[in-house]
Amino acid sequence: MPSMKIGIPIYDKVDLLDVAAPREMFFVMKDCVPEVEVHLLSADGCGVVTRDGMTIGAEMAFADAPRLDVLWVPGGDPSALDALMHDPARVYLDFLIDVSKHARYVASVCEGALLLAAAGLLDGYEATTHWAFIPCLKQFPAVRVVQGYPRFVVDRNRVTGGGISSGLDEALKMIELLSSYKAAQHVQQFTQYYPAPPVASVIPPAGACPMGVITRSL
Q1: pLDDT at 10
Q2: Running along the chain, 218 residues long, what does each successive block of 10 average in pLDDT?
Q3: What pLDDT does residue 138 have?
Q4: pTM exceeds 0.90
Q5: What is the pLDDT of residue 34?
Q6: Which of 36, 170, 175, 192 meets the CB 3.0–4.6 Å disulfide criterion with 184?
Q7: Going by C-beta distance under 8 Å and a sequence separation of 6 or more, which residues neighbour residue 114?
Q8: What's the half-sphere exposure (Cβ side, CA atoms, 13 Å) at 163?
Q9: Separation between Cα atoms, residue 151 and residue 184, nearest integer Å
Q10: Distance between CA atoms of 76 and 118, rounded to whole angstroms?
Q11: What's the chain look like in SS3?
Q12: Which CATH class is domain 4-191?
């Protein structure tokens, strides 16, 4: 049976949980769908340092990446997002565009939606992002930013998630889309993902975009 390839393109100052949480979920998915492959990719194939200072390795460079069935774009520090969006060589954005041409699903979690939007890959789609960065996403007029703060949004083959921990819910939904509800249940059970946080709070209204005015790289 042909393999099912999921790629997560990482970069310096990426959010650790945006990468580690879905990767864990997708790895457990292999119990039900053995042909699944999960790859961490970077521009040069080298490891990166996450926003919280942890070094994580990449398995291959963008240029060596196989044809991906799922592109999963993580969020990161605003300075990192700005650098990727305005890189004159467009290494990251062009990689997203190239992969999306053949991917079954194009997904993001947290501020990763801004990278998809900068690449033009959310034009005409409903989408969400981390609550504090919704004003940033609204700067892309062709993106239909949904109301409220959903954990994830599915619009055809685009799947976007809210802030950081939303990637857990979103990954379960992706597993259901790729395989079955039963497979998603298995992953939920194995990871004991039955959240019951010991604190309660509400999401405050978002202020101005933490990144200021965003201009799309051409």
Answers
A1: 98
A2: 91 98 97 96 98 97 98 98 97 98 98 98 98 98 97 98 98 98 98 97 95 78
A3: 97
A4: yes
A5: 95
A6: 175
A7: 75, 81, 85, 129, 133, 136, 137, 211, 214
A8: 10
A9: 16
A10: 15
A11: CCCEEEEEECCCCECHHHHHHHHHHHHHHCCCCCCEEEEEEECCCCCEECCCCCEECCCEEHHHCCCCCEEEECCECHHHHHHHHCCCCCHHHHHHHHHHCCCCEEEECCCHHHHHHHCCCCCCCEECCCHHHHHHHCCCCCCEECCCCCCEEEECCEEEECCCCHHHHHHHHHHHHHCCHHHHHHHHHHHCCCCCCCCCCCCCCCCCCCCCCCCCCC
A12: alpha beta
CA R_g for the chain? 16
Where are the chain's structural domains?
4-191
**155 has which bridge partners?**
158
**CB of 51 within 8 A of CB of 19?**
no
Q: Which residue has tokens 């979920």?
A: 25
Q: Which tokens go with 9?
A: 């393109």
Residue closest to 131 by CA, chosen among 114, 110, 153: 110
Identity of the amino acid at 201: S
Residues carrying an active site annotation: 110
Measured N-to-C along each axis, helices 91-100 and 78-85 cross at an angle, to the nearest 10 degrees, of: 80
Whole-number Å distance between alpha carbons of 133 and 191: 29
Give pLDDT, residue 1.
61
**Residue 165 · residue 191 · CB < 8 Å:** no
In the block, tokens 């879905």 appear at 22
